[in-house]
Amino acid sequence: MTRKLLGLLAVLAATAMLAASCGDDETATTSGQQEPAPTAAPAADAPDPEPEPEPAAEEPAAEPEPEPEPAAEEPAAEEPEEALRVALVLPGSANDKGFNQLAFEALPILESEFGVETAYSEATPVNEYVQAFEDFASDGYDIVIGQGFQFGEIAAEVAPNFPDNIFLVPNTTNLSGTNMQGIQPASHHAAYLAGVAAAMATESNQIGGIAGHAFPIIVAQMEAFAIGARSVAPDADVTITYLGTFDDVEAGKETARAMISSGVDIVYHIADAAGIGVIQAAREEGVLAIGWGGDQTEIAPDTILTSQIVNQTLLVVESVRAVVDGSFDGQQRLMGLDTPVLGMAPVRVVDNAAEIEAGIAEAKAGILDGSIEVPFIAEPSN
């Protein structure tokens, strides 16, 4: 039984005894004496109380769980670097089959190889060269390229005003600075080889050369072409004409026709779009032509003897590569016949093609080993 129940029984027993006592006091006796109170019957023996259960042993308090360590903060995601932006300013048409088109074709290569963003301006008027450079630089183009000798002075004028931009000018001879650089192929060396080929192919011993403008780098090539021809045929008659334009196809065609009518049977050009007119005249008149820039055989497969390679595409790519890989130093660069920028396309359409190829290879080896020196002549000799 529980202690509570035992206590309750004890209280009830005490109450009963008290009630019996009060009843005896109220009853009178005849003798006037109080009778002794009856003895209460002993209460029935209460059963022994059940032993109280021992309190359960207290379980040791559980150790507080360690608070979780705060999660390490992940480093903030780095902002992706903005793509380098490159702009190209072309003096002529982007589809001139020569100087301008070859540079233009570098843009998709730059995009795929370096992940850059590109833009270009073509047929840019001379009086807008400065504005084109400034506009691209102001619009956030990190590298601005002027395709041609004529942009050397423009870069030198604009670059100091945009110290965070880099200005590159392929085909110029003297441009150095903190944020500007000229990249010059030794194209007069390749022109010498073109002269060797012309002299070995001519039957009339009369050779023509037609160029756009008398820029020093172009003059140097025309002069080297004549020197190369005369190294094979000392008495060769080499006529050189400057058109005053790179864009006028008809001017190129008419000038070539005039030369051909005087006995010229092979004509060489450095005239960009106007050079297409030169090739067309040679094809129509049944004489040979030597292309320039890239292999121009596709223009007139039965007319092109060979082409002087001045790989403007690679020249632009390599100039930008130096900026991307950190090797840009602002110093004028020169690329020679020992680089893939310069060379000659295969000789075709003549019976003595193998002999001409051998003559070109021999002359190239002489230039590279120094036994043949090709001067850089910046002024026309005739």
Q: Which labels suit this protein?
A:
382 residues; alpha/beta; Rossmann fold
Name the helix and strand elements from N-terminus to C-terminus, one letter apiece: HEHHEHEHEEEHEHEHEHEEHEEH
Radius of gyration from the alpha-carbon trace, in angstroms: 53 Å
Instruction: Determine the strand fraction and express it as a percent band.
Output: 15-25%
What is the first-to-last residue Cα distance? 140 Å
Under CATH, the topology of one domain can be stated as: Rossmann fold
> In CATH, what is the class of one domain?
Alpha Beta
Mean pLDDT: 86
Helical coverage, percent range: 25-40%
The total of beta strands comes to 13
Assigned CATH architecture of one domain: 3-Layer(aba) Sandwich
Global structural class: alpha/beta
Biggest sheet overview: 7 strands, mixed
Total count of helical runs of at least 4 residues? 11
CATH superfamily of one domain: Response regulator
**Unreliable residue runs:** 1-47
Indicate the overall shape.
Answer: elongated
